[in-house]
């Protein structure tokens, strides 16, 4: 699907949320110009990397053209403004007000531009100037407090769920703006305020609705769902959504006596007596290997599976047979497995090197003769 062919996007964001939105637009056919300062997007310096490429920057910048311009110089500023004046969509992730101060605000853009601002806390409010990352927002939003491990300590998720979800939501908002713009009788700008706080809030909609309605934290939904270590050291994940699954679980485990215990009658009572229940189940799980438990649970189609590492996921037969992670041949890095996107599929166009297309883009837009 290439519905956005012919659209020009100036992606001046760094990191994850903004670039993720830009990558999806590129996958849909848009000409996305990845604008970077001379030192590059900070994501180029994190994680597994080679020269000016990293896996992180590759994931979020596939399919774009890379341009380096220095807005600290008058010439660089002029060239960026010239590109912004042509772009259908501009994506920026500066602190609120910075884009306007450096000459990359809506005033420098087309009268019908879709102007996307991505920030931690939004463009207004007492926290709008605060620096923010995915981890900070996991803490602020309450996400980390709900992600307690067996040690009962709040943990950040090791991946970046808030950044990625915010990028996906931003992509959805941009798509709506593109469709809405097609209905205009006169050009008008659309200013999209997209924040990590809003992204985190939408991830936690059920939990926020619950606590707002009750004025307190409700009991856990499906105790004793969770991960349990087995005899061989592997871990099995158990999910429960119906009471019958609790009956099937303990029956298969040979622990039918738990069905007679009034502390464990239903989800609410099990939640109230979680501290008493979990040690009993942990001890039981240690009597068999992970594969033995899974084979047993499959006889009742219970919602269980082995807790894999990402490397083990790549090695799974199912992953291979459905080509869930085809190979992207990324110059500078090599063969990188790149998971396909739901409903979209594989995006296997490499990410640009730092400034790789600067001359090409400037020439194309009539700016090369004045390039530094």
UniProtKB/TrEMBL annotation:
Pfam families, per database record: CoA_transf_3
Matches recorded under Gene3D superfamilies: Crotonobetainyl-coa:carnitine coa-transferase, domain 1, formyl-coa transferase, domain 3
Keywords, comma-separated and alphabetical: Transferase
InterPro entries, alphabetized: CoA-transferase_III_domain, CoA-Trfase_fam_III, CoA-Trfase_III_dom3_sf, CoA-Trfase_III_dom_1_sf
KW Transferase (keyword) present: yes
Molecular-function annotations in GO: CoA-transferase activity
PANTHER family: SUCCINATE--HYDROXYMETHYLGLUTARATE COA-TRANSFERASE
Record-given protein name: CoA transferase
Organism, scientific name: Rhodovarius crocodyli
